[in-house]
Amino acid sequence: MIDIDGYNRDQEHCRSVQKRLDRVIDKLEAWKRACNEVSITASAAGGDVKVTVAANGRMTGIEIVEGTMAAYTHQGLEERINQALKGAQKAARHEVAEIDDMIGTGDFVAAFDQGVEAAGT
Fold this sequence. Notes:
This protein is an alpha+beta fold. It contains four helices and three strands; from the N terminus they run H-E-E-E-H-H-H. Helix 1 (4-36) packs antiparallel against helix 4. The longest helix has 33 residues, at 4-36.
């Protein structure tokens, strides 16, 4: 014999879980979009060296003003590039932390839990 009431409850529970997962996915997509927009540029040597990084800290661009390479030894130039890179990476981490605060892990959990409370499970 088929327990139609149990079947209907299970079906409703599955729909509820799917809705919660959809909300979590929406939050995750918003977070990913926000992080993809992060592009931070920092400079060193009075602006002669500029480095741009993405949210993950990976360098996406470097700009060296004409004459800068001749003004420094290769080690000096490397130090200035690394200084600008570290500054940009630090700022990118800070920017991502702000995004996390706006659309953070707590929001993912809350999006899922809202459905749990509504379903009474």
